[in-house]
From TrEMBL:
Function statement: Condenses 4-methyl-5-(beta-hydroxyethyl)thiazole monophosphate (THZ-P) and 2-methyl-4-amino-5-hydroxymethyl pyrimidine pyrophosphate (HMP-PP) to form thiamine monophosphate (TMP).
Biological process annotations from GO: thiamine biosynthetic process; thiamine diphosphate biosynthetic process
Known cofactor(s): Mg(2+)
EC number: 2.5.1.3
Residues of the full protein shown: 198 to 466 of 473
GO CC entries: cytosol
Superkingdom of the organism of origin: Bacteria
Taxonomic placement: Bacteria, Pseudomonadati, Thermodesulfobacteriota, Desulfuromonadia, Desulfuromonadales
Entry protein name: Thiamine-phosphate synthase
Coiled coil region boundaries: none
Keyword Metal-binding: yes
Comment on bound cofactor: Binds 1 Mg(2+) ion per subunit.
Pathway: Cofactor biosynthesis; thiamine diphosphate biosynthesis; thiamine phosphate from 4-amino-2-methyl-5-diphosphomethylpyrimidine and 4-methyl-5-(2-phosphoethyl)-thiazole: step 1/1
GO molecular function: ATP binding; hydroxymethylpyrimidine kinase activity; magnesium ion binding; phosphomethylpyrimidine kinase activity; thiamine-phosphate diphosphorylase activity
Length: 269
């Protein structure tokens, strides 16, 4: 139902994230998601990664001022309805992106990417403080998984009660709305949304697959696209949850490691 929205393209999303040469996560996931949902995707690349389904082999970050140059070039001409951030890597890039979000006053979906599934560091340790101090206050919707929520708020986050507490704490730290994603829990895939002071639970069955590369990026990009298309927050997150669930159900067994989620099939169904 997602790809029959007309007229196309509807909703402009500027994704500020890292490139995944394997095509399943990062900027590539964001652009595929936004495009397949009928939106217009632009990008500011924070870092190149050399990676495949087996993991990240190398990272080549962009200078922070060149990240800003990409953001300015897009926003001063094409414009955007929402921003989406992913891998920001260094404290300099985090701070520069936070300043840009404030300057352009656009709603930003912030996926606080820290570590790849294979273990590679996508956010330097020294940048965590910059995320807390500089980025959270500029965040419209923060989308941490459980380890990211724990790192950012310093609380244990291992069950639904703790997810609700973490969402509240991250809101107090500056994020306007918070979606804590429970994919790392056992059992059903339950996410907790704290929006305008109210807690909502989003549920989906657990899907048994090793092909989950790009889940976080894709979920946040779908929400950013639905917001850009004018959906209210609760509906955008609900539609994003359906999209990512379908993308995992139909994930692609490419390579010999963790294959990518299926953006195309999720948008088609
Ligand atoms: N590479 C880049 C550039 C990313 O932005 C991300 C996701 O956030 C990843 C890799 C990690 O993807 P995953 O942990 O889903 O394998």
């Amino acid at each position: 139902q997602f790809n029959r929205r007309k007229p196309f393209p509807r909703g402009r999303v500027l994704s500020i994230a890292g490139s995944d040469s394997g095509g399943g996560a990062g900027i590539q996931a964001d652009l595929k998601t936004t495009t397949l949902l009928g939106g217009y995707g632009a990008c500011a690349i924070t870092a190149l990664t050399a990676q495949n389904t087996l993991g990240v082999r190398g990272i080549h970050p962009a200078p922070a001022d060149f990240v800003v140059e990409q953001i300015s070039a897009v926003l001063e001409d094409i414009g955007a309805d929402t921003l989406k951030t992913g891998m920001l890597f260094s404290p300099e890039i985090v701070s520069a992106v936070a300043d840009a979000i404030r300057q352009y006053t656009l709603p930003a979906v912030v996926d606080p990417v820290m570590v790849a599934k294979g273990g590679a560091t996508l956010l330097e340790q020294a940048a965590v403080e910059a995320v807390r101090e500089r980025l959270l206050p500029e965040t419209y919707l923060l989308t941490p998984n459980l380890p990211e929520a724990e790192t950012l708020c310093g609380l244990a986050v291992r069950n639904v009660d703790e997810m609700e507490r973490a969402a509240q704490r991250l809101h107090e730290m500056g994020a306007r709305h918070v979606l804590v994603k429970g994919g790392h829990l056992e059992g059903e895939a339950l996410d907790v949304l704290l929006a305008d002071g109210e807690i909502h639970h989003l549920r989906a069955p657990r899907i048994d697959t090793r092909n989950t590369h790009g889940t976080g990026c894709t979920y946040a990009a779908a929400i950013a696209t639905f917001l850009a298309q004018g959906l209210p927050l609760g509906e955008a997150v609900g539609a994003g949850k359906k999209f990512i669930t379908r993308a995992i159900e139909t994930a692609i067994p490419l390579g010999s490691g963790h294959g990518p989620v299926n953006h195309w099939q999720a948008a088609w169904d």
